[in-house]
Amino acid sequence: MLGICRGRRKFLAASLTLLCIPAVTWLYLFAGSFEDGKPVSLSPLESQAHSPRYTASSQRERESLEVRVREVEEENRALRRQLSLAQGRAPAPRRGNHSKTSSLEEGTGDSENLRAGIVAGNSSECGQQPVVEKCETIHVAIVCAGYNASRDVVTLVKSVLFHRRNPLHFHLIADSIAEHPAVRVDFYNADELKSEVSWIPNKHYSGIYGLMKLVLTKTLPANLERVIVLDTDITFATDIAELWAVFHKFKGQQVLGLVENQSDWYLGNLWKNHRPWPALGRGYNTGVILLLLDKLRKMKWEQMWRLTAERELMGMLSTSLADQDIFNAVIKQNPFLVYQLPCFWNVQLSDHTRSEQCYRDVSDLKVIHWNSPKKLRVKNKHVEFFRNLYLTFLEYDGNLLRRELFGCPSEADVNSENLQKQLSELDEDDLCYEFRRERFTVHRTHLYFLHYEYEPASDSTDVTLVAQLSMDRLQMLEAICKHWEGPISLALYLSDAEAQQFLRYAQGSEVLMGRHNVAYHIVYKEGQFYPVNLLRNVAMKHAGTPYMFLSDIDFLPMYGLYEYLRKSVIQLDLANTKKAMIVPAFETLRYRLSFPKSKAELLSMLDMGTLFTFRYHVWTKGHAPTNFAKWRTATTPYRVEWEADFEPYVVVRRDCPEYDRRFVGFGWNKVAHIMDAGAQEYEFIVLPNAYMIHMPHAPSFDITKFRSNKQYRICLKTLSRRYGFPALKYLTAENNS
């Protein structure tokens, strides 16, 4: 930028010595003579400008300069075409179109700068760009209540973090996002705000949450002076600090920064008898708002919008576009409140909008707003480019955005300091360093990734099936849902891209979409180990019932097990005793199995060799204490004693011990948990009429690592000594290595 400024001053000095050269020639030269930030060489003219032999009447030199200007213009046109083709950019509209759209491009407070906003793209006039201090914190408020919004906000936050150079402070109404360095997040309970706006009838698909931006002056901290408010269906294509800098352009009583609405909605001519809320001209879109909170509070904003809404609702009866209708009605009465932002700060991709007039090139784009219910299926000439940009952030690895800002230290965090201290105490030369370090990894987690709605049974006997899985076990979900009608809590270990694949898989499944009592919690991949016990703990923590069935994703429970367990909870008085009810585990080697519908049928299949007790041929000790011989004839629950290496699948109260998250990958993870339960004096009770069957699958990456990597087994054995002895699964693997 400084180089460009110096270049312009040189040209200006030269131009003052050249008499009789039309001013418009120099304007064209300035507009079209820069390539890669350097001025086109005019050294002959510059040297002549200081020469006594140079005369203003030199017709030859004037003609030479004009020829050079035309050449430069042509070169730049060719360069723009090449760049558009090379980067797959949309062709630019003709210059003539801009005279028709100046109202979209100009800011009401600074039109002399913003008139050139589209033409200049992301560049700015020399010395006129407002400054945002290097470590100045930018405040962003987002209403992200509801399951779709909680997913959309992740993509929005990624796009903001990708471009940002300043510390950020997010103010989120409702849902949680991951932690990042130099990013602070405050949460506000949406349920506590419902009473503020629930009296307003709203037809918009956003429901009651679509009205909550109206109460931000009351909701956000009283000492917060300004904030950028964003819808969740926004994608940033530039540093948000550029938008924050626009606050410096507000003048007088301007307290709202908004982009003009790019559809004809508020013009009232979309269909016969179309009657929108009152608005100033085309009205304004509230997907991106700059709020001067301190001034709004002084103006009694709460009273202002409430009185306006009450008055208009007498005739309109309800809002059609949620908060946007009320904002526009207030602005209609008080136009001085608005600073009109250039439309590239909110390129609205609804059907039949004028969004294409907001940009001439990719570099002009700053904020893309998917404000149509159709979202990615919206009609737009360049929608393929916009869709690819959105999908890039959708599947972008969020771990890559966890970076410190140089020169802007994060706020002191006791947990982070303790974590750093613990990490510093590890010996990096230790061959088990990566194994030990894994337990300190802070994984990004997205709770309730899909819609979940369930109220536990009123008799306090409800049981949640708890399990964890990765992408290669998705095929088990539908079968488990068919076998278990009760609530399920699942932790899925996925990358950002895999999370989107899972979303498409689930949305395409009638079985999964028909179940609202299955909670899916995404734990995003990080590191080289599979954090199996961390995943189990996440799923356990968010089981919403008094009891949990701690299963694995490869097992199918018997039909009717859910109701049987609820009855057993009462029979064995689990509410008042420390018991772990064991569900005996079996396995089949057949991918297609006629699942036994009763204990008698299962025993018959055992005798025929179609079924086996689980892992009897490789790890007998894991389930031998269940005493399968006794189970065959048992009609009442019976107690068994804990033994070394015992790892049954159990039903316990929610207050049972957590899994030890230091165990990662394959080996010892369930054994250690059952050992903890035994140490805490849990009784192990085998249920006589319950069973589960393990379905065959290809070996996991972690079991392969266990069998083939001797150092992995050594590290695991070292960790297991905490429990008094080094028993491990598949010891034959160690003996054979």
Automatic annotation (TrEMBL):
<protein>
    <submittedName>
        <fullName>LARGE xylosyl- and glucuronyltransferase 1</fullName>
    </submittedName>
</protein>
<keyword id="KW-0328">Glycosyltransferase</keyword>
<dbReference type="InterPro" id="IPR051292">
    <property type="entry name" value="Xyl/GlcA_transferase"/>
</dbReference>
<keyword id="KW-1133">Transmembrane helix</keyword>
<dbReference type="InterPro" id="IPR002495">
    <property type="entry name" value="Glyco_trans_8"/>
</dbReference>
<keyword id="KW-0325">Glycoprotein</keyword>
<dbReference type="GO" id="GO:0042285">
    <property type="term" value="F:xylosyltransferase activity"/>
</dbReference>
<dbReference type="GO" id="GO:0035269">
    <property type="term" value="P:protein O-linked glycosylation via mannose"/>
</dbReference>
<feature type="region of interest" description="Disordered">
    <location>
        <begin position="82"/>
        <end position="112"/>
    </location>
</feature>
<keyword id="KW-0735">Signal-anchor</keyword>
<feature type="transmembrane region" description="Helical">
    <location>
        <begin position="12"/>
        <end position="31"/>
    </location>
</feature>
<dbReference type="Pfam" id="PF01501">
    <property type="entry name" value="Glyco_transf_8"/>
</dbReference>
<feature type="region of interest" description="Disordered">
    <location>
        <begin position="43"/>
        <end position="64"/>
    </location>
</feature>
<dbReference type="GO" id="GO:0000139">
    <property type="term" value="C:Golgi membrane"/>
</dbReference>
<keyword id="KW-0472">Membrane</keyword>
<comment type="similarity">
    <text>In the C-terminal section; belongs to the glycosyltransferase 49 family.</text>
</comment>
<keyword id="KW-0333">Golgi apparatus</keyword>
<comment type="similarity">
    <text>In the N-terminal section; belongs to the glycosyltransferase 8 family.</text>
</comment>
<feature type="compositionally biased region" description="Polar residues">
    <location>
        <begin position="44"/>
        <end position="58"/>
    </location>
</feature>
<keyword id="KW-0511">Multifunctional enzyme</keyword>
<dbReference type="Pfam" id="PF13896">
    <property type="entry name" value="Glyco_transf_49"/>
</dbReference>
<comment type="pathway">
    <text>Protein modification; protein glycosylation.</text>
</comment>
<dbReference type="InterPro" id="IPR029044">
    <property type="entry name" value="Nucleotide-diphossugar_trans"/>
</dbReference>
<keyword id="KW-0808">Transferase</keyword>
<keyword id="KW-0812">Transmembrane</keyword>
<dbReference type="GO" id="GO:0015020">
    <property type="term" value="F:glucuronosyltransferase activity"/>
</dbReference>
